[in-house]
Amino acid sequence: xxxxxxxxxxxxxxxxxxxxxxxxxxxxxxxxxxxxxxxxxxxxxxxxxxxxxxxxxxxxxxxxxxxxxxxxxxxxxxxxxxxxxxxxxxxxxxxxxxxxxxxxxxxxxxxxxxxxxxxxxxxxxxxxxxxxxxxxxxxxxxxxxxxxxxxxxxxxxxxxxxxxxxxxxxxxxxxxxxxxxxxxxxxxxxxxxxxxxxxxxxxxxxxxxxxxxxxxxxxxxxxxxxxxxxxxxxxxxxxxxxxxxxxxxxxxxxxxxxxxxxxxxx
Length: 266
Ligand SMILES: Nc1ncnc2c1ncn2[C@@H]1O[C@H](COP(=O)(O)OP(=O)(O)O)[C@@H](O)[C@H]1O
Ligand SMILES: [Mg+2]
Known about the structure:
The protein is an alpha/beta fold.
């Protein structure tokens, strides 16, 4: 089945119940997440916003099976988290591309690593490059690309094995605002089209509103859910929605949830 023509929801569900996490550090135990309960539907786009250090990256790493948790249960696509799952694509703030491989070869990497490279792979890589608008630069090296283009390569690579779940940890924060908004819209539309369950960590409230179905506001020390905001803007999302009254209202709801928590601890 072609990735591009696939309009069925291929996303997976994610649920967390009573999840807590404490890191053991040289200075003693550091509680970072407390009693996290989440039910994310297949194909849903959910953003996490909250102050630095409130455990957002830890939460994504728990879902990806990269970090253990102390209490509660986590189900990702109906299974316990496990490292190295092919049904999870992960995108970080830095693109982490292999500098000795060109764009096309970087996107091909997951096929090689997973042992799934076959006669169909060049066609799939070409489709992925087309999807993220990189066909004209397929033979360039990563350092010849702008930051935005590098993140597109990282996006194509994360999508390579057609995962049901995309985890994105501040993937746009190193980009300037104009490029960022442009990519926000593109990625939101792509997520609609591909039907993947997408979790985005961001510092930007407007990015979260622009892209998501739901926003989870997290408070700090330890990280916990302080607000769940539904984004009822129509899809496909468009840049000009940012100026709408509804957009401002939803942004304010997020701001109020975050501020209420900050005021509570000061
Ligand atoms: N492996 C680790 N060992 C000990 N402390 C950690 C580790 N990873 C993160 N932390 C600490 O846990 C807290 C939450 O980190 P993180 O999940 O990265 O937060 P966020 O992504 O919201 O900024 C921070 O205080 C951070 O310093
Ligand atoms: Mg982080």
